[in-house]
Amino acid sequence: MARRREKSEINPIVKYLLFSLNFVFWILGLAFAILGTYILILKHKVVKDAFDFFLDPSTIMCTAGAVIVFVAFFGCMGALRENTCFLQFFNSQFNYLVTFLSVFLIGEIVFVIFVFVFYFVPDAREQLGLFPEKSMHEAIIKYGVVDDDDMVNFIDNIQQTLKCCGLGDKEDGFLDWNDNMYYNCTTTSKSPEKCSVPASCCKIKEGDIRNILCGKNVMDPKPDGSVAPGANVDKIYTVGCLKSLGNWINSNALVAGGVLLGVLIPQMFIMCVSRTLRYQIKAQKAKWDRPENRPNKFQGDGPYYINVPKDRNQRAGRYHGVNNPTFDHHS
């Protein structure tokens, strides 16, 4: 009589739910990686430094897609248990997957704390030496100087979206453009864009015709070499983009909190599901390792033998009862 099959410790709902979620992320990551790579090849992009990397959406898209594909692959294969070989291998990979997601989740929480400290606790920011405007200032200097249309478009989009000018954390952030070789207001500058700012700083109302010269002469030079607001400053946004972002977060704290929860909760859910499946896999393996569930290495019509001789004649002899301790030849 056949022995009744024992119930599996692995819940199929948990297994296929984790597989489905990771498969969707795998498809999205693959699409991101292919699209980002195609854009990089199309424009012959060469990443020279960190600013070129972080200010280029295509490089970020390509890198993020590759990471998503890598992690989601292990999530998919770890969720599927087609045979014991996959089970043993991917069970060990779950440890790395959960660890990676935990580190990534902690990094996001640290980023949220960083944003809170940066905008709402200025004294702590100064003590910790958190000055991201220095990094942003480097992008202002490279704007239009380095042949990188992506960085130019990135800065223009930020200034238009946040309605700001310059990337600093100041009310008069537009004065940061004085450090750009094309827009600086020094007496030695021969640039036709002298004492100006990019057109993306301009205030444009709905229905107005775009004037690329609206940022002309918004800075006036002083005898000491510094600059002051010029006559046309009312035509542009003057606040720096970091300052504008802080003002937006301050006035839209609930929206920002909802977005963060929308990002963190799915990750925490996937981590919990993967952890649950990992424990179920361990429980199933423990059940298989019980002595009564271990398969015998040799099975014939007679008794089951665990230690099977390598020699063919000896195996035949044992099968027919020769030198077999389970048979009594003298009885």
From TrEMBL:
Gene3D superfamilies: Tetraspanin. It comes from Mytilus edulis. Residues 286-305 are annotated as: Disordered. The chain crosses the membrane at residues 21-41, 53-75, 96-121, 253-273. The keyword Membrane applies. GO terms for cellular component: plasma membrane. Its main location: membrane. This is TSPAN33. It is a multi-pass membrane protein. Residues 286-295 have a biased composition (Basic and acidic residues). It is found in: Membrane. Keywords: Membrane, Transmembrane, Transmembrane helix. Pfam families: Tetraspanin. It comes from the Eukaryota.
